[in-house]
Design goal:
- With about 260 residues, this protein is of the alpha/beta class.
- The protein has 8 helices and 9 strands.
- The chain has helices spanning about 15-25, 35-45, 70-75, 105-135, 155-175, 195-200, 205, 220-230, and strands at about 5, 30-35, 60, 85-90, 135-140, 180-185, 240, 245-250, 250-255.
- Helix 1 crosses helix 8 (about 220-230), helix 3 packs parallel to helix 4 and helix 4 (about 105-135) packs parallel to helix 5.
- It is globular and about 50 Å long.
- Bound molecules: NADPH dihydro-nicotinamide-adenine-dinucleotide phosphate (NDP) and 2-hydroxyethylsulfonic acid (8X3).
């Protein structure tokens, strides 16, 4: 039986690109997210890409990572042939708003901390025991350059990604005796639905971060997940910071006029 990847947030951006990449390579792909219509459409598209695999090559699970009971129910519903997850990509996440700390919205803060930190923990807690029982597995956490340095008005988003940075290191330590690899990928500016979500559908504001420069794309991150996942068993990338060529740090971006 081929290898199985579970991706959180596979309905858009990095997660969707990663699902496409691994399905094209013949992996069995569990796609997850909240938007049922997107999950169904992606499943239809990817199914059978590489001929029929036993039990199919794509399985969709709809859940909100913030709700631990929903996460547990979703995992309990997995058919036996989908339970052996070789690679978990903790990707679901968001930035909400870009405000100074004194005027930030409590709803935005809760959304970011509940999704980016607690959501990652909920899903990891559901997957890790199976990996330990099998004595192998790989977890890829999608952090951010915002988890390496803070930038003005990034406050709570940056804090949530610093938590992902810390949890990635902590997982690496705790899972070391179990032969489970842990990799953090920390991207810089990437044009996905991220900015539309951050600015709540305001297209004009959403375009601003990418003006005059070439941002990363979903495929760029999917390629890195693939690279990290296909290294020899004795090699583990612990931390991978990747930015557009035009970006040196969160606050240093070279823009063409
Ligand atoms: P997108 O907005 O394009 O995709 C985000 C994905 O996360 C969607 O599939 C969304 O699915 C899912 N998601 C969000 N909230 C939840 C939730 N509560 N439960 C389940 N799924 C959820 O953004 P990106 O692809 O850019 O972002 C992916 C990750 O990469 C995030 O963690 C983000 O912080 C990080 N990142 C992004 C960068 C960028 O510049 N784009 C740079 C660095 C890191 P649905 O809405 O269907 O639930
Ligand atoms: C996303 C990159 O710079 O918008 O994590 O925080 S940034």
């Amino acid at each position: 039986m081929g290898k199985t990847i579970l991706i959180t947030g596979a309905t858009a951006g990095f997660g969707e690109a990663t699902a496409r990449r691994f399905a094209a390579e013949g992996w069995r792909v569990i796609i997850t997210g909240r938007r049922r219509d997107r999950l169904d459409a992606l499943k239809r598209e990817l199914q059978g890409l590489h001929g029929p695999l036993e039990g199919g090559n794509v399985h969709a699970l709809r859940f909100d990572v913030r709700d631990n009971a929903e996460v547990e129910r979703a995992f309990a519903s997995l058919p036996d042939e989908w339970r052996n997850i070789d690679l978990l990509v903790n990707n679901a996440g968001l930035a909400a708003g870009l405000d100074p700390i004194q005027t930030g919205s409590m709803d935005d803060w809760n959304a970011m901390l509940d999704t980016n930190v607690k959501g990652l923990l909920h899903v990891s807690r559901a997957v890790i025991p199976g990996m330990i029982a099998r004595g192998k597995g790989h977890i890829v956490n999608i952090g951010s350059v915002a988890g390496k340095e803070v930038y003005p008005k990034g406050n709570v988003y940056c804090a949530s990604k610093h938590a992902v940075d810390a949890l990635s290191k902590a997982m690496r330590q705790d899972l070391l005796p179990h032969g489970i690899k842990v990799t953090q990928i920390a991207p810089g500016l990437a044009e996905t639905e991220f900015s539309m979500v951050r600015f709540k559908g305001d297209e004009r504001l959403a375009k601003v971060p990418y003006q005059g420069m070439q941002p990363l794309r979903g495929d760029d991150i999917a390629n890195l997940v693939w690279f990290a996942a296909t290294l020899p068993a004795h090699v583990c990338i612990n931390d991978l910071v990747v930015t557009p060529t035009a970006q040196a740090s969160s606050t240093q971006v070279h823009r063409q006029a």
